[in-house]
Please model this.
Amino acid sequence: MAKALVVDSRLCVGCGRCELTCSYAKFKVFNPYRAAIRVVKMEPGVDTPIFCMQCGACIDACPEGALSRDPETLVVKVDEEKCKGCPFCAMACPYGAIYVDPETGKAVKCDYCGECVETCPQGALRLVEVEDLPWFRARSMAVAITAAPQLARWLWYKLP
Amino acid sequence: MPRGYAGRLLRVDLTSGKWKAEELPEGMMRDFVGGNGFAAYIMFNELKPGVDPLGPDNILMFMTGPLTGTPFPSSGRYAAYAKSPLTTAIWGEAHSGGYWGPELKYAGFDGIIITGRAEKPVYLWVHDGEVEIRDASHIWGLDVFETETIIKQELGDDRVKVACIGPAGEKLVRLACIMNDLYRAAGRCGLGAVMGSKKLKAIAVRGSMDIEVEKPDEFMEVVKELLDKMKENPVTGQALPTYGTNVLTNIINTAGGLPTFNFQQGWHPDAWLNSGEHMRDTILVKNRGCRFCWIRCARFCAVTTGPYAGVVGEGPEYETVWAFGSQCGVFRLDAIHAANTLCNKYGLDTISTGNIIGWAMELYERGILTKEDTDGLDLHFGNHEAMVELVERIALRKGKLGDLLAEGWHRAAEKIGKGSERLIMAVKGLGLPAYEPRAFWGHALGYATNVRGGCHLRAYMIAPEVLGVPKKMDPLTTEGKAEMCIWFQNYFAFVDSSLVCKFVTFALTPEDFARAMAACTGWDWDADKVLLTGERIYNLERMVQCREGVGRKDDTLPERFLKEPAPVGPAKGKVVPLKEMLDEYYKLRGWDVETGIPLPETLRRLGLEDAAKTAEELLKKS
Amino acid sequence: MKVRVRAFATLAGLLSGGEVELELPEGCTIREALEALIGRCGKVLAQALFGQEGRLAPGVKVMLNGRDIDFLSGLNTRLSDGDEVFLFPPVGGG
Model:
């Protein structure tokens, strides 16, 4: 069945092991800036990874038809033969989750392979069945919307 | 180039304003590995004996190692090295975590070697093999948080990693440190003052280049096994992530080893108020980690109530909790975190600063310092407000006392007189950290012999004496301590050269390092070679200090631990029997027992021909 | 005689409130004290404290008045009134 990558941002400490494992899985090098997952740290104390939500906005944006959704895994894939590195996909992606790799000149995006999951020391990343996905996505959205107020609550106010 | 290295060293001369990239020679990589090894090699060959540490001839280095920035567990570190302006140990070295270290490798350099002195404040901008020396006069005088923010804005990229000094380093405060990533410190030995003396405000790094190893698939296999070991190990897998390094406060206090009131005693009934357990119940918000860390032992705390409400940031660590805690008779985490955050802001070593304030407090309580000497501060043990105020005064050289303590213990004692020197709790001029020597005799031997001076990390003897790693040893005996101390010093010299976090050694062995290094570099490595390489590096560091006069006379402890029996706790009535451990230490090391200088045959066995010749001359003279 | 037992860090949750005072017969050994403790606190504590063959689990450090019992007489060490028995998991740091 189709599996999806999800994160619990409250557990993330921003270490970036996921980035390093991804760059190895994709390119056999150690370079966190050539990974399909991107860790964002904002001081004070906020850490989270960002990766593809498979929304498909890039599919229509691509003039070469290099992006398409796999009918079984439901993941949006890059056809490297068709990809010209233009990079309309990067322009269209609202998450900053797809970009053109400077070495290969091809688009790079997360395909939910799950290599990063085991390497996260906090257990923040998981692969879940697509039937269970909506709850995790909803929680991620809630964390995103409320993160700043949550942090403010931790920092400035203790529950009575 | 593969083999894990970026392949080049960056040399910057601030006097001429010129820089150049140097290819890493293969011999250097094979015999000295990186980190400490590279620094020892360069210090021995290029640093002239007798230079002023705050003068243009001191060499300031930043180094990583082949494992830095790879998926090897906890590989996100770097270290800074220079002749120390604070200690008589000569060898100045400080390691730090955070994110700066790996970024330097992605930027194409394994290390930076800085000589000379700039005319006006500058900062280095290193990115993908390119280097700029930029004007820093607009950020000179700013604190660490402001500096990093402005540099990131200026360079237009907040993924830039910054290592910088604060006002303390600029004012040549000898306790000043180098900060990176806002909250991380290359703390000890006063290296912030060296950077300040060169008018170097910061080094900004940003890299997007690849790091490659010789046998990537084999390397990842080994890494996977090592990660499993780290996961299963209760220290790296549970205790440290949950409670941080401050998990130590309760056990060290129980063992009678928590230095209190400037090392007058090793136990206090209120110590639990400063513990990691209590921290979880009060000011802890979350844990955090350095780049690629598996352990993530860092703390992120926020004080929300009381006089210190609003203090937010990473830390405090065990050492800091001790330094601003029981060392000064303070048993509240909010004041400790406030002092910690001030140190981060101004760029001061928390261990040295807390230690020296505790010293000043003992002097005040004994009447050696009066209220006039302290600019009106009531420096009784436990007065946390005075403690926090004094941190700022030391950082900014404010007032008579602030300016005096900014010079370090011995220079301050020269001016104070009245027997203040006797109460200094330091070795070779470096203030002792959070373990009472009378309660841990092997660790005390480490204090006396570690190259940096009063340092707890070159041989972390608490591991066998409290934790039982690699084997359990009774802290109140001398048996086997010299041999174990040497084993740790050699092993850690290697770890500090491959440049990853020492904490992996709670779970990993020299054999594990050998397997990782073999897959990383493609060369032959085994556990014996790891320890031999570490021994070589340690001996070369020792020669850097011996050729400037350091020897047995300096490998000692403050009189308090040799003559005054511990007053309370399980070590009550004990002093440290240092002499017998030291004699055995020199014999096992193959060093001259009278002078503490490495014997020429030992240095030759390690392949250090030039050092052997130097040792011959020194031994002839003595 | 009264003996105070405390557990720390990851072991703290095994004792209610992290701390228990035991009322024990004179000359009790540490082993007997721990067994009395298990009687109070249950099987989870037993599993955490004792491994194979009735030996202390490798992850547990027992300190009597600040001294590791391995350097006294181990589990056969005799207790006195007012003694403090502290239980620690493996810890380390810097």
Chain B has a mean pLDDT of 97. The longest strand of chain B covers residues 200-206.
